[in-house]
Amino acid sequence: MSFLTIRPIELAALVSTVQSPERGGIAVFLGLVRNHHDGRAVVRLDYSAYGPMAEAECGRIVAEAGSRWDAAIALEHRIGPLSVGDTAVAIVAASAHREAAFAACRFVIDEVKRRVPIWKREHYADGTRVWVDPTAKLQHA
Amino acid sequence: MIPFGMSAAAPPTVSVHVVLFASYADSLGVDALELTLPAPTTISAIVEHLRTLPGGSRLPPKPMCALNLAHAQPHDPVAEGDEVAILPPLAGG
Fold it and tell me: What's the Rg (C-alpha) of chain B?
């Protein structure tokens, strides 16, 4: 399975890959492109990835989640130019009950943000663009 | 007979493929390069070398790195033909 896509993420199609009669709980997390960052107006952004490693790391994360919870997991991250409101990442976790579905879904998005080599460059309304550094806030705090 | 370039006196070296991304690729002006360093070598030795290149001072001393598509630590040994990636702060999700 490929976890990275340059096409719009289709949630219904992703859900159908993990849906089954014995799995009565499905948790979904969607990450969307925000229209602001640090008080600046974002008009669009570009996601880029270290493709082969991002695929491998997503595979490892999904496998780890599958070994910790009795859940089927689907994960897709979009790469390339995105507009405000577009879905950048989608995670679907299906299990017999909601606890495992929520826990697995939360684990996968947290690990994706921590471990998968993906970067985003924001384009602002004033014409400037910047590679986003989520650690910069921590350094300034 | 000693093959050309393989003199018995030549110190051993390690050639690695280095890949850079996002802000780090912008800083050094390249997204990939081949490095040959004295053997044995490590992730941190490769980063130290990169920091001596033009624009390299903008790399932090201990950036996040990967070795052959998996996260790596500064002391990890690097072997001939390995791919080392220098990863700016991740921003996926």
Answer: 14
d(CA B93, CA B88): 15
What span, in angstroms and rounded, lies between the C-alpha atoms of B36 and B21? 20
Q: Could you tell me the fold of the domain covering B13-87?
A: Ubiquitin-like (UB roll) (3.10.20)
Mean pLDDT of chain B: 93
Where residue B10 falls among pLDDT bands split at 50, 70, 90? confident
Residues of A in contact with B19 (CB under 8 A): 50
Give the DSSP letter of residue A113.
H
**Mutation target among A131, A132, A137 for the B interface, most CBs of B within 10 A:** A131
Global ipTM = 0.91
Q: Which amino acid is at A23?
A: R
pLDDT digits 0-9 by tens, A65-114: 999 999 999 999 999 999 999 999 999 999 999 999 999 999 999 999 99
Instruction: Name which of A80, A64, A46 is nearest A114 in CA terms.
Output: A64
Judged by a CB distance cut-off of 8 A, whether residue A80 touches chain B is no
For tokens 């490693």, the residue is A53
